[in-house]
Amino acid sequence: MAQNSENNEQLSIRDNSSVRMVDVSEEMKSCFLDYAMSVIISRALPDVRDGLKPSQRRILFAMHELGLAPNRKHLKCAKIVGETMGNFHPHGDQAIYPTLVHMAQPWAMREVLIDGQGNFGSIEGDPPAAMRYTEARLSPAGALLMADMEKDTVDFVPNYDETQMEPAVFPAAFPNLIVNGGTGIAVGMATNIPPHNLSETIDALVALIDQPGLSAEDLLKYIQGPDFPTGGVILGKEGIVSYFTTGRGSLKVRGEVHFEELRGGKSAIVIDEIPYNVNRASLVEKIGELVNQKIIPEIADIRDESDENTRVVIELKRDAIPKVVINNLYKHTPLQTTFAVNMVAIDRLRPKSLNLKELLFCYLDHRHDVIVRRTRFDLNKALERAEILEGFLIALSQLEDFIRLIRESTNREEARKKLLELKFSTRLLETLGIFIAQDRITEEGVYSLSLRQVEAILDLRLYQLTGLERGKIASEYAELLEKIEQFKEILGSEEKIWALIKQELLAVKEKYGNPRKTKILQEAGEVSFEDLVANQRVVITLTHNGFIKRTNLDNYRSQRRGGRGVVGMATQEVGKEEEQDFVENLINASTHDYLLFFTTDGRVYIQRVYEIPEKERASKGKNIVNFLELKPTEEIASMLRIVANSEVSDSRETSWDKNDYIFFCTKKGRVKKTPVADFQNIRKGGITAISIEENDKLIDCMFTDGQKDIVLITKEGQSIRFSETQVRSMGRNAAGVIGINLREGDEVVGAAVVDERATLLVVGEKGIGKRTSFEEYRRQKRGGYGIKTMKTTEKTGKVVSARTVFEEDELMLLTLKGNVIRIKVKDLRKTGRNTQGVRLVQLDSDDKVTSIARVVPEKEEGEEPLLP
């Protein structure tokens, strides 16, 4: 028992000497903080200066040490990974290789840092080949990060086992963190920096050098926003402004799509670009699931036709509305995603949340240090070389004495000692043009050789004693003196340092800059087809039975007067003429414009041109009831085009911003004018445009400025001209006033706006037409019976339409059988008011003209608008 007691006492003493009482919670907190800082600083977050995490930097440095320059052959990735793991990054190859692969993927990096050869995966999430199969070398951008690293531009630190040195940061000749962005999840913090365009970023850096006081908002003039390697569309600038100013923001990113017409009247949505970090295969799979779940039943088929470029074809069913489908795709699939920006990086060994201006300034400060250290290094090297050349010049100036001294020496050590003891006068230095050595002249006014100079003289080869070599030495020394002076000027002037930084950045932009890939829309919101559909000139046609379509204007070739025309629409062969379909309305427009549809009952509906289905020239089109909520008694009486761009190029065009009017005319001769602005906010179900009396209907509408003269033309060839100032402006619900009195059996078939530079074209149903100057139509008071405008005979038939036309205009004439002819107005000679006219189109016996329309002339890029 005594022995046990003694042992226990000894154990207690020994334990007390080795055990320290601690608070467990405090110890855990301390250990966890150490671990957290290690993860933050040494693993997860990029350095603000070169934009690299330690693992990325070590891979690139290992490649640099292996000599894998952009102009050298590729090397097996297994060798690179082994070199990195053995020398710099003691982690598994399953951690190193994916990092290497990521820096070589063009869909992941805006400017790839590694040039890979072999299978490095795909945007669909396919894994890369094993590292024993793939090869790599540095890309030009990767090499730029390490440019001038051998010139003491950055600090080197010991590697993990202190056997080698590795750079703590790269010189970074371009702002990699901003250009390529970065992601990382640390302990208690994370970073998600979007990539940006290299050229735009350099422009912003140059602007900051010139104007350091620029605000974060001012940088929007230079950097539009993120520029993702996969392209796409960013909606709105609110999120961009937010992270520019605060370092945090949320971006709504959509894929880029366009529309194509397929055979059989079908259409397709084609995805050309997908949002950043979206897996294309997963996107296609998600769309397929939505089709199977009947969430998007309008999709008939989906095909991934991608190669190195994305092309996913989504074929729609025949009656599908593309706008509805694309909105559902944005709502239910990763075709629209949110990119949360959180710009956190390591700055002076501390994690910081930085806005864009602060990121740019951090990079500029780093480049300033690099340039100063590089210039100082170059200066020291130049001084060292100049010192040696001075020794050569002194030795060559007294060559015989030097040779004799060396020959008389028994060994190198003795020769070195004798050369160090030599003294030279300052006059000799002045004679030889030696300036650097002036700093080493003693108080006695003499100069002696340095040890470095003596060693270089002893190493001189015999051929360097020739006259030619002596001249080279003198020439090199003179050039060095100039460089030394330049280096000193740079180091002595902040202005020259920043000018050099600008010069080098602009050189990088000139050589490696490229256009941005990501589009940025001004406002976020629902999808705008203006950004999905090209703004093209098209022809809109609407048939008597309500079939509408749009066709590219290029499909209609210009012909001479009197031709047969081309088939403009396949119409139904019913047998009875009154039941046969034919084109009643035609208008020339751009796909971004608005269309106002005025019905015979006096209601108006609005539709964008791009929402009208695009069909081939000879196809029938789709029934308008699929687009407009028409009442059973309604038919389309007129279509008007509102130009989307407020800066209209033609005086005969109008936009919502112009103070123009819409002038209405009914079959019974009633007229009215209402401001265009009253029709800007039209409900989907339409609104009243004019009140129509019983047994009357609306036949025509046109734009006016409120001060013009109007001509009304009747079926029997009567016309009346009056000033529209006689018609006061009225609201939408007004019925109007009498414009022309009609004789029994007559009715108004058209109305035209008078323009003295133009003429009035009147066309009969038998293809006869005439062009008459407005001067032949005297102004009258509205409400009269008018005067004759065309002799209606068996040859001409009844008047079917009338239009104001200009000399440079082209016209479309449509016939009952669906033929279309395009003629130039200048090919029509002018005739008198009370004549029959000339033949405009050759018709079959059972065919007749149904309507005419003017083609708006286009202008070439850079020309002035073609005005009447």
TrEMBL record:
<feature type="active site" description="O-(5'-phospho-DNA)-tyrosine intermediate">
    <location>
        <position position="133"/>
    </location>
</feature>
<dbReference type="InterPro" id="IPR013760">
    <property type="entry name" value="Topo_IIA-like_dom_sf"/>
</dbReference>
<feature type="domain" description="Topo IIA-type catalytic">
    <location>
        <begin position="45"/>
        <end position="532"/>
    </location>
</feature>
<comment type="function">
    <text>A type II topoisomerase that negatively supercoils closed circular double-stranded (ds) DNA in an ATP-dependent manner to modulate DNA topology and maintain chromosomes in an underwound state. Negative supercoiling favors strand separation, and DNA replication, transcription, recombination and repair, all of which involve strand separation. Also able to catalyze the interconversion of other topological isomers of dsDNA rings, including catenanes and knotted rings. Type II topoisomerases break and join 2 DNA strands simultaneously in an ATP-dependent manner.</text>
</comment>
<keyword id="KW-0413">Isomerase</keyword>
<dbReference type="Pfam" id="PF03989">
    <property type="entry name" value="DNA_gyraseA_C"/>
</dbReference>
<dbReference type="InterPro" id="IPR035516">
    <property type="entry name" value="Gyrase/topoIV_suA_C"/>
</dbReference>
<dbReference type="Pfam" id="PF00521">
    <property type="entry name" value="DNA_topoisoIV"/>
</dbReference>
<dbReference type="InterPro" id="IPR013757">
    <property type="entry name" value="Topo_IIA_A_a_sf"/>
</dbReference>
<keyword id="KW-0799">Topoisomerase</keyword>
<protein>
    <recommendedName>
        <fullName>DNA gyrase subunit A</fullName>
        <ecNumber>5.6.2.2</ecNumber>
    </recommendedName>
</protein>
<comment type="similarity">
    <text>Belongs to the type II topoisomerase GyrA/ParC subunit family.</text>
</comment>
<dbReference type="InterPro" id="IPR013758">
    <property type="entry name" value="Topo_IIA_A/C_ab"/>
</dbReference>
<feature type="short sequence motif" description="GyrA-box">
    <location>
        <begin position="559"/>
        <end position="565"/>
    </location>
</feature>
<keyword id="KW-0963">Cytoplasm</keyword>
<dbReference type="InterPro" id="IPR050220">
    <property type="entry name" value="Type_II_DNA_Topoisomerases"/>
</dbReference>
<dbReference type="InterPro" id="IPR005743">
    <property type="entry name" value="GyrA"/>
</dbReference>
<keyword id="KW-0067">ATP-binding</keyword>
<keyword id="KW-0238">DNA-binding</keyword>
<dbReference type="InterPro" id="IPR006691">
    <property type="entry name" value="GyrA/parC_rep"/>
</dbReference>
<comment type="subunit">
    <text>Heterotetramer, composed of two GyrA and two GyrB chains. In the heterotetramer, GyrA contains the active site tyrosine that forms a transient covalent intermediate with DNA, while GyrB binds cofactors and catalyzes ATP hydrolysis.</text>
</comment>
<dbReference type="InterPro" id="IPR002205">
    <property type="entry name" value="Topo_IIA_dom_A"/>
</dbReference>
<keyword id="KW-0547">Nucleotide-binding</keyword>
